[in-house]
Specification:
The protein has 11 helices and 17 strands. It is of the alpha+beta class.
Length: 398
């Protein structure tokens, strides 16, 4: 049976939409980041209205228009795009050009998306495409998402940006929730981003954890292929993790690196670093660079749960054999490997720098309920998809 719900290999592996020229001023049904950056306060106000309209209020609005976010838009760290009917976009373009005689007939029926540079999980060389809301506009989700990624790749060299992360909503709709199926299907069938697992680090307004797709779009497919061929093995402490990682590479049509299962050393001196937060309600940890540095994991969990941060995410460099003891401790404390970022070879002049395979472990500290993807309940799955989804269903009870 064909792959249908997680990834569809592209006949043109270079993705034709990436080859199109960037349009600095957008087109008649789209307003580009080059325009919206001119008035960051207005941009944030309009984006907030579009997102709240599109999500029926099911979004953390405080993250959309505070002073920090407005500064990020002004500096180009959040590249905001709008789309809609030609008349609506014409009104917006006139307002952003400084024409005070033009007024917006309505804030409704405007779609938006944002490319975020330097978000917490986006390591050096990565950006994130998100905050997508259609707002019932009749034009644009695929075209504008494609344009945002294309323009970003054109604006920055591979060292600064080689991969765009996407975390599309994938839940079925309901009385209190907007369905994420169209966004997920857009990434599956049109953007054709690569599926690398589940990102369970967004806590909804209704106090549920949303199990988002974790997807990546690389500047070129050769980045990952050369990253695999130029690197060493990946180390895991559990056979189930090996099968899961191997299946993710197989899903994306890649042979993948060698995966070694090994127990790892003792954990007497393990400490953990807490460098930043992924977002509201989320604790983000990384493995320490040296044995014995950092903080005790149990104490960190306890203190952050008191701070109402019920989700913990731990980033682990899985090509480092020393990470085995961290993986073993995480498993013992109830963490689950949910997604990976594959290795990449990034052009740097005549040389290439490697970005090794990174895994993300998750724990639901407060036993919150989850909002599962629509494909968790689909029966017509390929054997490969079924194997991956069966593993990911552990998130519903984790």
């Amino acid at each position: 049976m064909r792959l249908r719900y997680l990834y569809r290999p592209s006949a043109d592996v270079t993705l034709k939409w990436l080859k199109g020229p960037p349009r600095p001023d957008g087109h008649e049904c789209c307003l580009s980041a080059a325009v919206t950056r001119k008035n960051p306060a207005l941009t944030c106000k309009l984006r907030k209205a579009a997102i709240l309209e599109g999500y029926r209020g099911d979004y953390k609005a405080a993250e959309l228009d505070n002073e920090v976010v407005i500064r990020r838009v002004s500096k180009g760290k959040e590249r905001v795009y709008f789309w809609g009917k030609a008349q609506k976009i014409s009104e917006l373009r006139s307002i952003f050009s400084g024409n005070k005689r033009t007024s917006l007939s309505s804030k409704k029926e405007i779609g938006t998306t944002t490319l975020l540079v330097g978000s917490c999980l986006a390591r050096k060389g990565y950006a994130e495409i998100g905050r997508l809301a259609n707002g019932w506009a009749s034009n644009g989700p695929f075209e504008v998402t494609a344009m945002a990624i294309r323009e970003a790749f054109a604006a920055w060299d591979p060292q600064r940006l080689h991969t765009v992360i996407a975390l599309p909503r994938n839940r079925p709709g309901g009385p209190r929730a907007v369905a994420g199926v169209p966004a997920q299907r857009m990434h599956l069938a049109e953007i054709r981003s690569n599926f690398w697992g589940i990102a369970p680090w967004y806590v909804l307004q209704e106090n549920k954890i949303e199990l988002l797709d974790y997807r990546e779009v690389s500047r070129s497919p050769s980045l990952v292929k050369e990253g695999i061929s130029s690197g060493g093995p990946v180390y895991v402490a559990d056979p189930g993790d090996r099968a899961y990682v191997r299946n993710l590479f197989k899903l994306n049509g890649l042979a993948g690196p060698a995966i070694v299962v090994r127990r790892g050393g003792n954990d007497e001196k393990i400490g953990w670093n807490c460098p930043a937060r992924v977002g509201t309600n989320v604790l983000y940890l990384t493995c320490p660079s040296q044995d014995g540095t950092g903080m005790n994991l149990e104490n960190i969990e306890r203190s952050h749960l008191k701070m109402k941060e019920p989700v913990a995410i731990v980033e682990v460099p899985m090509e480092d054999e020393k990470s085995l003891k961290f993986q073993r401790v995480l498993k013992a404390r109830g963490y689950l490997l949910t997604c990976v970022s594959p290795p990449k070879a990034i052009p740097f002049g005549r040389k290439k720098n490697r970005d090794g395979l990174t895994g993300y472990w998750y724990k639901n500290l407060a036993t919150l309920k989850t909002a599962a993807p629509y494909y968790f309940s689909v029966r017509e799955l390929s054997s490969l998809e079924r194997s991956i989804i069966q593993r990911l269903k552990k998130l519903e009870s984790n």
